[in-house]
Structures are given as C-alpha cells and as structure tokens.
Amino acid sequence: MARLFIVRHGQASFGEANYDRLSDLGWQQARWLGEYFGERELDFHRVVAGSLQRQQDTAKGILEGMARVGADVSTHPGLNEYDGEMMYRAFTGSGDQHVHQARDFKDYWRTFRAAYEAWIDDRLTDVTETWGDFGQRIENAIDHACEGAGRDDAVLVVTSGGVIGSALTRLLEGPERGAIHLNFQFRNTAFCEVIVGSSARRVLNFNNAPHLERPGRRHALTHV
C-alpha cells in the first residue's frame, strides 16, 4: 500500500506583521525533517504543498535536507489553512485580532477557540468558507496528491495544523470538534503517516517528530 506523509509547516512568525513566513528555526526544522526522511531512504513519488509561503518553504526545506534541491513541488490551494481572521471577525464583530493577542494572549486564545467551535457548529454568519466546505476542499486536495500512487510509493503533503486536524477527524470518523484538539496539538514539522489503499485510508501514526527528539534539539519542539 502507498504511504502518505502529512507534514505541518515549520515554525512561522507568530506575532509579527507577516505570520506567513518561516522563522530561522522553522527552516532548520524543515531541513532536519528532510535529513530524517533521507535516513529512512524515502523517495517521494509526489510532493504537494499549499500555496502559502510557510507551506511552500517548508517543502523546499525538507527537499533541501534530502539533498533534492530544486525537486518539483506541486501546489494545491486546497491545502491552505483556514482563514483565522475571518473566524475571529465573524465571532467577535471586530477585526482587532492582533491587538487582542498583544493585550491578553490567554484571553485571545479562549476567544479564538470559541470562534473555532462556532464555525464548526455552523453558528457563524458572514463567512467566506464554511466548515463543511473547508473539509471537502482538503479531501479533494489529498485525493489529488494520492492520485496514481502505486502500492510501494510514498507521497508527501505539506500543509497546516487546521488542515491536518480536519483531515484526521474525517479519517478517524471522530467528533467534529475533535479537529480543534488535533490542530492545537500538532507540532511544527511533525508528521502523520497514513496507509493509502485502493478503498480505504488508515492512520498509522500521529504528530511524529523524531527529527526533533534528539540531543540538542528539544528547543525545536514548537507549536506555532
């Protein structure tokens, strides 16, 4: 059976004007993951990332670590993260998300989680994408990534935590709100491995970061 590796992007630039940019540590996390994949002698049949900069650059960093600089990275916008600002604005009626983060970080996250729950429950109005639409576009993107993969092939998908949370919730047939927990637990450049069969997909492991769980790298276990 083919194997699908779904990777969350490296550490981005949380709290800065442009979050969608890998930090120096984010680049290093990606390269270390590439080195780990190289040690496992993985040769990906296809590499697909969302169109966000942090996703694209993570894929490039992984390939750099595998000594495959310049290898092709396909782009599928269905792997892009949900619009957090849309959720926050629809829930609070305010666009001052970053001001809220700076003023009271803990209260901001409580508010954001409540907004996330309301989005999943279809209680938000004036949104550009529903929870159901989000899940469907992710499923379509993963179908595209796995298309044509043979039983001995490996496929690499680079995306974001919210996408992974939604995808795994569907695969595990879990409660919809469980996607929030999976999202917030997923570490930067951690991966899950999915067995892809002709008629079913099964989660083999979740939130793995063996490339970071090595001496001198504990500082690189990050979540944002």
Automatic annotation (TrEMBL):
<dbReference type="InterPro" id="IPR029033">
    <property type="entry name" value="His_PPase_superfam"/>
</dbReference>
<dbReference type="GO" id="GO:0016791">
    <property type="term" value="F:phosphatase activity"/>
</dbReference>
<dbReference type="Pfam" id="PF00300">
    <property type="entry name" value="His_Phos_1"/>
</dbReference>
<protein>
    <submittedName>
        <fullName>Broad specificity phosphatase PhoE</fullName>
    </submittedName>
</protein>
<dbReference type="GO" id="GO:0005737">
    <property type="term" value="C:cytoplasm"/>
</dbReference>
<dbReference type="InterPro" id="IPR013078">
    <property type="entry name" value="His_Pase_superF_clade-1"/>
</dbReference>
<dbReference type="InterPro" id="IPR050275">
    <property type="entry name" value="PGM_Phosphatase"/>
</dbReference>
